[in-house]
Predict the structure.
Amino acid sequence: MIDFQSSGIVGYGEGSLDELDICYLEKYWLNLEGLVSYWAGLLNQAFIINRDGPGVRCQSNMECRPGGVLFTEEEFLDFKRLSIDLGAKSFAVIEYIGQSEWVDFSSLSFFRFAYPLDVSWSEMTSSCPIADDVFMRPIRAFFVISDNGRIGKYVDSDALHPYELFFSSNS
């Protein structure tokens, strides 16, 4: 909880979290140390962040799709199935706020979570106000990556031009 509180995410200061939010954060919040020590390498291998915005390094199994919310329930179930088929056990969801790299941040004020692949749709998306804010409000951009780096996506939920870059790799 200390890492979350130090993130300073607007609207989620001390005293504004209910018991369900606190339980959710204790289970799924990805602290900065975990992001930098484990997930940053996977993110760097999978994604490019340049002046024109994020892109995917692996072009072989990449699709550009219309965007919107981070996942629909059907997309999530497909993502889970494919992740498990590719040998993953968990995945991370990290908000993109313009960071240029994954080890040095100008701001810590961004959502970041790590979930086991056995998390249910309802637990992940609607078990508390924070989950609902992240997964059901199409106002943010996110990176999603499996713990083995073999499947992921970038979702830009811009109201005018929402898009998603999705990739999977058999190698």
